[in-house]
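Onboarding guide, step 5: your first structure request.
Type a short instruction followed by the sequence, for example:

Predict the 3D structure of this protein.
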Amino acid sequence: NRALLDALRVAAVSDVRSGLDAFKLALSYDAMGNAEIREQLVRFADAVTGSSQIPDDFKMEVFRLALAEAQKSIDENPLDPRPLLFIGVLYNRAQLYDESVAAFRKALTLAPNKQQILFELADVHLRSEQYKQALELIEKAYNLEPRFAFARLNLIATLILDGQIERSDKLLAEHNLLHSPEKVLLQAYAKVGDIWRLARVFKNFVREYPEEWVYRDNLVRNLVKLGDSAGARAVLDEAARRQEFIDKAVALSRELGL
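The system replies with structure tokens like these:
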């Protein structure tokens, strides 16, 4: 679909107004590929509404168009869960959580074992800090395919958020993830204020990405919070052996009184 390719090309260069106009033109042809155009329009709308650099009135214009086009797909194919999934994503991004849940629930009646729908609905509950509801959905997704790394990590992170630390630790050990650098774990431990486990994950990041200062900085700060000044100094001493980190290590040491 040449019109779709043109719309994607324009949208990719960060000219959002021209991108929207290109999508409108592509849709005006009323071609067989409209379903794909609508799907890409939803992705465009998701990116636009998530940006802090774009005016709210333009976000609303894109949101309304994407919503209307997704509804057309529902009317044309009422047994296809994908348009409902798209609408749920749009509502979630717009923080219209009740509407988002309703769309995802309806999509699940059409495809009860589709993992993407389960994850998206769980995300709505996570945003609302409804961790038990999110956990129920993510466990179902995990049980459908336990080897799926995304499902496994999200299950562990949601267990952490729900206060089930012992079970999350057990899963981490079972899947050899205790020494793995995973951002979803950083976010979960930071959310619940588990400084000890947060430091453990930062150690994993430092080991995996030794060239990134930000992980060393965070590790040192968390070790200080734990009262482990010796451990913090050891991290800084090791960092200072790298020429590019000397000044940063000295500055952080002074800042934290090490």
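Each response can be followed by summary notes, for example: DSSP finds 15 helices and no strands in the chain.
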